[in-house]
Amino acid sequence: MAVVARSSPEVEETARELTAAGGRALALVGDVVERAQMEEVVARVERELGPIDLLINNAGVSGPPGAFWEADPDDFWRVVEVNLRGASLCSRLVLAGMVARGRGRIINIGSDVAARPTHRNIGYAVAKAALLRLTDCLAQAARPQGVSVFALSPGMVHTRMTEHTWQSGQWPAEAWAEPEVAARAVVLLASGRGDGLTGRYVHAVRDDLEALITRAEQIEQDDLYALRLRF
């Protein structure tokens, strides 16, 4: 497994934990919005670990807490860049290989804020809504080639970003989610058992993924768990 982040100490700590658990981990430093850096990251992963069969787009930043008209436009756009451009760029770099091999899975880390309006943290909401549309578009395009693409909310996992946004009142108070719940959801989707849910947005805490898998045909037929307008 390869782990990528802008901060060397954090990514190395994660790699050490994976290695201690019996896995093989490659720690790499790079910014997901920088094309040249991500091209080098992907090339090195394939060189040292082999073909990439699973991509988890987890990089994200939150926006400034002030009103939209008071915020710096560059700060707003940076939020969109990291959450959307990062995922689209990394997906683009691995999809060609996945399609050629006829297999692969991409998991985009989403958020419920994508599906409802908010007067705070608008850049984050806009980016996550666009990420849902990127997810179902890529899923539709790549499904015939054996590639599945999902959007997954991990719930309110306690991180530096969520702590900041919670304290600043950008998100409503809710119970913290255990990170292991999201990890189990990722493993399930990565296993291939959830491929019938490709293109869908699911929630690691709220949704029973095993039950959704049994309903996958009906979910697709009714076009559920997706960003849609109803008329």
From TrEMBL:
Transmembrane segments: none annotated. Keywords: Oxidoreductase. Signal peptide: none annotated. This is Short-chain dehydrogenase/reductase SDR. GO terms for molecular function: oxidoreductase activity. It comes from Cystobacter fuscus (strain ATCC 25194 / DSM 2262 / NBRC 100088 / M29). InterPro entries: NAD(P)-bd_dom_sf, Sc_DH/Rdtase_CS, SDR_fam. Belongs to the short-chain dehydrogenases/reductases (SDR) family.
